Amino acid sequence: MEIRPATPADIPALCRLLDQLFAQEAEFSPDRDAQQRGLAAIIEQPAAGEILLAEEDGQVLAMVNLLYTISTALGAPVALLEDMVVDAAARDRGLGTQLLEAAIATARSRGCRRITLLTDTDNLDAQRFYARRGFARSPMIPLRRALDPL
């Protein structure tokens, strides 16, 4: 298995993974056009973020997305970990752990001092997965407001 940065040629395979992820999330649903736009924007703007994928025998089996910003509290870069998904047929083989470790190493190499992620409140498997790898609940709660396009 190889972990590498995603390229524009990987977008169709990444969309298939996102379809699986968004089909199980409470707040989102698959939208191929939006997914393609978002993936392309990240891949084309490395300062904004990057996508890592796990590939085996030419098949993309897992992905994770890191977005970067600056924390005024830390005075340093931080990362938002999004879209961590392992293909359903490839789970329970350690791919998620390897991909998450690569994402942490990548964020650390970019000087990030913190990684934040969101998961559905009812996704207890994901919460246990992240907790076993050093992530802890924050006393802060996420709030969102959708914005209409101009």
Structural commentary:
The protein has helices spanning 11-24, 32-44, 95-109, 124-132; strands at 2-5, 49-56, 59-71, 76-86, 115-117. By secondary structure, it is α+β, with helices and mostly antiparallel strands. It has one domain: 3-Layer(aba) Sandwich (Aminopeptidase), CATH 3.40.630. Strand 3 (59-71) and strand 4 (76-86) form a beta hairpin. The longest helix has 15 residues, at 95-109.
Uncertain segments of ≥5 residues (pLDDT<50)?
none
How many structural domains?
1
CATH homology superfamily:
Gcn5-related N-acetyltransferase (GNAT)
CATH architectural category: 3-Layer(aba) Sandwich
Oligomeric category: single chain
List the strand order in the largest sheet.
1-2-3-4-5
- Write down the overall geometry: globular
Query: Would you tell me the structural class of the helices and strands?
Result: alpha+beta
Q: How large, in whole angstroms, is the Cα Rg?
A: 15 Å
Give the mean pLDDT.
Answer: 94
Write down how many β-strands occur, each being a DSSP E stretch of 2 or more residues.
5
Question: Which helices and strands appear, and what pairs or packs with what?
Answer:
Layout: E1 2-5, H1 11-24, H2 32-44, E2 49-56, E3 59-71, E4 76-86, H3 95-109, E5 115-117, H4 124-132
Parallel strand pairs: 4-5
Antiparallel strand pairs: 1-2, 2-3, 3-4
Helix pairs in contact: 1-2
